Amino acid sequence: MQPSNPPDLRKIADEAMEKYGFLPTFPKNVISEVNNLNDEMRPEERRSARDLRSLLWVSIDNHDTMDIDQIQFCEKKPNGEIQVKIAIADVDHLVGKGSATDRHAAKHGTSIYTGVVTYPMLPIRLSEDITSLHPTKDKLAVVIEYTVLSDGSIRHGDIYPAIVHNKAKLVYEVVGEWLENKGAFPYEDLYIPKLPEQLLLQHEAAQKMKAERAEQGFLDLETIEASPVMVEGKVTGLVIQQESPAHSLIEEFMISANRTLVARLNERSFPMIQRIVRTPRNWQGIVEEAASHHFRLPADPDVQALASFLITQKKKDPETFPDLSLTVVKLMGPGEYVAVAPDQDSVGHFALAVTDYTHGTAPNRRYVDIIIQRLIKASIERQKSPYDIDELTMLAGHLSASEKAANKVERFVRKAAGAVLLMDRVGETFRGLVTGASEKGTYARIIDPPVEGRIVKNMDGLKVGQRVQVRLLKTDPEKGYIDFERI
């Protein structure tokens, strides 16, 4: 039983934001600027945008998401082809470059989701109302078109401004379960003709793209990320979001949309920021991990060989596959943003097995997506690039650093919530997995509840990915400490 007055997790979250360089509240000049915005479309914006409000646009997201960045629509074409339209919220038309709102968004770089409280990158009036593509009002968007060919490859299409209207705000878990089990359609009460057929067509397109990427060697990783369950300000448990066909659908659609954005900017010889994952920094560690599962990887990094190993292990032992995925992610190293000049080769995204990837489909949540949107709109209007390579290089470095800091906030608050949850379980023994082993310390994530802590006793000789039995020694929510002893 938890203490009657557990620590204030909201206060802990605010302090974590400040510790890692973020503001937990918006400055007054940003609030004032956003409150003075006119959310009505200007006549010139209507004239320059295609009217696509009649299409059966849908969004699929978490049940509580209000900052909807993208909606999608598919259409059957001859020869087994499927045309995909992705509409991205036009945030740039209300967040001018250099404005107070823009400067604040650039500083933070991303919305921060702690599970206890969400710190949006943009004020709620913008991100959850004016620019959000929720099904209440016509909205301005940038539409990205591409065609999924019969073999799952894509043909990049047009990009243009449009007026859209979301017809249905759908939820990952509900859509995913229906796509998986094919029972009664769960949204009959919406009375939207052809909605089931539209979702099945979107699923078909996504499955084709996923199969084609699998042939190229993308890494189908499945890591565990536990979020606090909050009831009246108190943590009552930790929940792990289960992946579903609906998550896969959105992932595939956004990967291809982002690749289409890169193709357009390359056509116009624009500089840009790309999202990359370098060749694994600890390939030898991955080789050793595979060997412990009786699988031999080549001495040099090989994404297709690694993908084959992961597919084999997922089929062989699906229960522990998330633990293996976490180990590979740790050994592979993080993603980052890099500026790419016109005609410059990209490092590529090792995990996705693509060399032309960016982040441009979530401008309400990530600042790099606003940058890409500005570049794309300039290319559409045949204007010069609003950024030069030096400015993009500076921004890419800053946004990579702010993403790491945001991840630290999220991890700290999740650990604080876990510490609160475990406060009355000191002395108990848990099964765990070593998630970090270096001079900075040795860490393990216990299986149930899925909480990470530091092994402070008997940690010598432990390696990332190793399974351990640990005893809980103490917790300190204010410091985010959960201390274990290896048994």
| Largest sheet: spatial strand order | 1-8-7-4-3
Overall number of domains: 3
Helix-strand makeup class: alpha+beta
Largest sheet, in brief, is: 5 strands, mixed
Quote the beta fraction: 15-25%
Please give the alpha-carbon distance between the first and last residues: 25 Å
Number of helices: 13
Dominant shape: globular
What Rg is obtained from the alpha carbons, in whole angstroms?
A: 23 Å
Mean pLDDT: 91
Unreliable runs = none
Helix content: 25-40%
Number of strands: 18
Question: Could you characterize the architecture of this molecule?
Answer:
It is a single chain. Helix 1 packs antiparallel against helix 13 (389-421). With 487 residues, the chain is of the alpha+beta class. It is 37% helix and 23% strand. It folds into three domains: 9-268 and 360-366, no CATH class; 283-332, no CATH class; 422-486, OB fold (Dihydrolipoamide Acetyltransferase, E2P) (Beta Barrel). It has helices at 9-19, 28-35, 43-48, 100-108, 124-130, 172-181, 195-216, 245-267, 283-292, 303-316, 321-332, 367-380, 389-421; strands at 50-51, 57-61, 70-76, 82-89, 112-113, 118-119, 139-148, 154-164, 166-171, 226-231, 234-240, 272-276, 336-340, 429-438, 441-446, 452-457, 467-476, 481-486. It is globular, with a radius of gyration of 23 Å. The chain contains 13 helices and 18 strands. Strand 5 and strand 6 (118-119) form a beta hairpin. It has a five-stranded mixed beta sheet. Strands 14-15-16-18-17 form a five-stranded mixed beta barrel.
